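Researcher: We're teaching a course module on how sequence relates to structure. For the next exercise, students receive a sequence and then see the predicted structure as tokens, so they can try to spot secondary structure elements on their own. Here is the exercise chain.
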Amino acid sequence: MYLLDTHALIWFLSDSSELSPRTREIICSVEDVFVSYISLWEMAIKKSLGKLKLSYNFRHIIEICQEEHFQMLNINYKDLDKLEELPFFHRDPFDRLLIAQAQSRNLCIITKDRLIPQYDVNTLW
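Model: And here is the predicted structure for the students to work with:
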């Protein structure tokens, strides 16, 4: 079971070469791929600040995720309990929440972020 980091989701949606062919193949071939609403929240903030350009609106992003059979992941109290326990190797609040979600649900994070593997969480790139 895999959780897409925000940049992995963006690169998947834009068919970017930043996403390696191996990683794209895994995303497209496994059944249990999760996308967190945390990533959509991060994307919305970055878009509103002019730091991110998206060719899709969020309704369309959700539709694409559904077409790809990605499971949408809400935040819950277990995630917040995990978040509270995390050491501060990583300062980005969105990444910390994704790490907490991965830990509380035993998910492997698909990420290029070099700080995330410092946590007790499986990663793939």
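Model: If you want an answer key for the exercise: The domain at 2-124 is CATH 3.40.50.1010 (Rossmann fold). The mean pLDDT is 96.
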